[in-house]
Design brief:
By secondary structure, the chain is mainly alpha-helical. About 0% of the residues have low confidence.
């Protein structure tokens, strides 16, 4: 019932819920997150705010916070329960967001979604794009890795030719991600506004019915980060002159591993692209107003939902196979 009350849209998924505008987008975001947060107390805090009542233990904690603030004391009473303290602070923050929006006065709290489907996806995507960009810089600027890649291209020309048509430019993935998730463009210090709430609601719906794409993004994120870390750890080995058979063997293995950097970058970029295509397909074909809210062309209409899901699942298997192969 609480989720229905603060939902951005009414039951017809067309009429905007005015509660969002009244209590504020940040308060709605925090109330929604409280339901999904890992803390056992979080749902109870949301319930307390929605009903306007909370138990005596929370009241005592609030009184302790008030006393500490009045005395300008940094230290909280030693007997305070950390979980109750967190609950009290969350309660105060949420009430501050609501009251400041109603009174149009300045607030002490700021908030944007953390646990929503869209927030999870955008956090993962930001990490992926950052790691892929870092890997791209290493490929372009590190001469040792560049030499390894050129050696591999000379030794495996057919493999490189076969893989070249599958390359997706990183810029294409970045633009597609920002098109799907407009809130990705927001700076960290920008306020979470009402329009952000309505925009995120649409992508939350698309993602809630497309968990396989979220899982694919998560798998890609872990694989990219793992490969990038291992490449960075091995770079120094490439510049050393081996003085023993063991060191020559290590150098050869390292060179082979680093020679796959460009293939790894392009492969992982492709898997992220597959995930975004799946999300876009679901958004444009199965979400309310989804087709009207996106720019660009829709994915091929000859694809069925089963085709899209199968592509995502096979991409997950490909990541696992590629990761095992490149590591061994």
């Amino acid at each position: 019932k609480h989720e229905v009350m603060i939902s951005p849209y009414l039951g017809d998924e067309m009429t905007r819920n005015q509660v969002v505008r009244v209590i504020g987008a940040e308060a709605c975001a925090m109330l929604s997150d409280l339901f999904a947060a890992p803390s056992v107390e979080a749902p109870n805090i949301r319930s307390a705010i929605c009903h306007g009542t909370w138990d005596g233990e929370i009241v005592k904690e609030l009184e302790g916070l008030a006393t500490a603030t009045a005395e300008k004391s940094i230290d909280h009473p030693e007997k305070s329960d950390p979980l109750l303290l967190d609950a009290a602070c969350a309660l105060v923050s949420c009430l501050d967001l609501i009251s400041s929006n109603l009174s149009e006065k300045s607030r002490i709290s700021r908030y944007r979604p953390v646990y929503s489907y869209t927030s999870t996806a955008t956090q993962t995507l930001n990490g992926i794009l950052c790691d892929l960009s870092h890997l791209d810089v290493l490929i372009s600027n590190n001469s040792s890795i560049g030499n390894c890649i050129r050696t591999m291209e000379l030794q495996q020309p057919k493999l490189c030719d076969d893989l070249r048509p599958l390359k997706i430019e990183l810029k294409v993935v970045e633009e597609m991600a920002c098109d799907l998730f407009p809130t990705m463009k927001k700076a960290d210090d920008e306020l979470w506004c009402v329009e952000d709430t309505f925009s995120e609601h649409q992508t939350n719906i698309a993602l809630s019915g497309n968990i396989v794409s979220l899982t694919l993004l998560s798998d890609a994120s872990h694989a990219i980060k793992k490969y990038l870390v291992e490449v960075q750890e091995r770079i120094d080995i490439l510049s050393k002159q081996p003085s023993s058979t063991k060191e020559r063997r290590i150098l050869k293995t390292t060179a082979r591993f680093c020679s796959a950097a460009m293939i790894a970058r392009d492969f992982y970029t492709l898997t992220v692209y597959v995930s975004l295509v799946a999300i876009k397909y679901h958004y444009q074909n199965e979400s309310p107003n989804g087709a009207d809210l996106l720019h660009g062309d829709a994915p091929n209409k000859n694809f069925s939902r089963e085709d899209i899901v199968r592509a995502s699942e096979r991409s997950r298997m490909a990541i696992s196979t590629f990761d095992s192969h490149i590591t061994n």
